[in-house]
Amino acid sequence: MASRLLLKTLSKRHRISSTPFPFLSKSSGSRSASTLVLAEHEGGSIKAQSLSAVVAASSIGENNSVSMLLAGSGSSLLKAAESAATCHPSLSQVLVADSDKFEYPLAEPWSKLVQLVQQQGGYSHVIATSGSFGKNILPRAAALLDISPVTDVVEIIGSHQFVRPIYAGNALCTVRYTGASPCMLTVRSTSFPVPPVSGDLKSDRAPISQVDLSTLDEDSIGKSRYIKLLSEDTERPDLGSAHIVVTGGRALKSAENFKLIEKLAEKLGAAVGATRAAVDAGFVPNELQVGQTGKIVAPELYLAFGVSGAIQHLAGMKDSKVIVAVNKDADAPIFQVADYGLVGDLFEVIPDLLEKLPEKKMST
């Protein structure tokens, strides 16, 4: 049976990994380092990706003071601030900008806010994650501050020395920031995992302060406006933080056939991903795209069905702990990075798996 081949006789592949520039030692960071983390919240909780930014900020130096900036309005913002105050032991304070102008995370008001807070606090570093939130806001804020940001950081070696991928993730480059303060970074959340939260953090609650918005320059606020949010209503875990991801490619041929991937994900309690080709073909919305121009994921298990393994896609998933690939083409590039591979027809393999696998409750 196809499932037995997949689960018992998959061919083992080996990946070679190396640490670039081993002669560079990790520095303790600047004594006066202070970092501002731009955080995203939803439903009164801090998003997991923003917690990864706090982890990254804490690695800049032992004496680094880490502040988290939240913006929004109403009770949801206040709940998020209370949650943030105990989210990580390295957090020194939570800054809250409460205004209707920040009800939605638009680049114009947020970048003006970052400029204002930087002028008030004089931070040495400003950090956001490399998701849609950070990529939307940080470049505009950097332009207002006349700073060149360092993007897609996967490792922090010192206060101004970082590692980031180049050539679609095929090489790692160590860079040193030599510009004026603040040093502005976007970090890949998958490279800075959040450790389990200790119950003792309740006693280490960071103070919450309101940002003085009286001098906020509103000249450029309002050039864009929020229309609506289109989001899939599902109980599946978030693609960016799921432990298991099931991805389908163009080989599924249609949106109707892509439901096989969704059914398998439901069985496994997994998130659903897709290649750019599948998204461009209209099989699924672009929020499910994994790759260089989509989401970067690093789950415990990554299942790829009908995925050829284009460089653009590999850049978004090759840091997964275990990669399993199913493809009819034995020479598909995906097999070069897969830990396990099966040359087979996904239209036979997936139904067989659906029959053999027990039901499993959704989990993140």
Structural class: alpha/beta
Integer average pLDDT:
85
Q: Which architecture of the largest domain would the CATH scheme give at its second level?
A: 3-Layer(aba) Sandwich
Q: Quick one: how many beta strands?
A: 18
Structure explained in plain terms:
- The structure is a single chain.
- The protein has 364 residues and is of the alpha/beta class.
- It has two domains: 34-210, HUPs (Rossmann fold, 3-Layer(aba) Sandwich); 244-356, TPP-binding domain (Rossmann fold), CATH 3.40.50.
- Helices cover 25% and strands 23% of the residues.
- It has a seven-stranded parallel sheet, sandwiched between helices. Strands 1-18-17-16-14-15 form a six-stranded mixed sheet.
- α4 crosses α5 (132-144).
- The protein is globular.
- Mean pLDDT is 85; it is low at 1-30.
- FAD binds at residues 250, 275-276, 289-293, 306-313, 327.
How would you sum up this structure in a few lines?
By secondary structure, the protein is α/β, with parallel strands linked by helices. It contains nine helices and 18 strands.
Layout of helices and strands, plus pairs?
Elements: H1 2-8, E1 11-12, E2 34-38, E3 41-42, E4 45-46, H2 48-58, E5 65-72, H3 75-85, E6 91-98, H4 107-121, E7 125-129, H5 132-144, E8 150-153, E9 155-158, E10 161-166, E11 171-176, E12 183-187, E13 208-210, E14 244-248, H6 255-268, E15 271-274, H7 276-280, E16 301-305, H8 311-314, E17 322-327, E18 340-343, H9 346-356
Parallel strand pairs: 2-5, 2-7, 5-6, 6-13, 7-12, 8-12, 14-15, 14-16, 16-17, 17-18
Antiparallel strand pairs: 1-18, 3-4, 9-10, 10-11
Subcellular location: Mitochondrion matrix
GO molecular function: electron transfer activity; flavin adenine dinucleotide binding
Cofactor: FAD
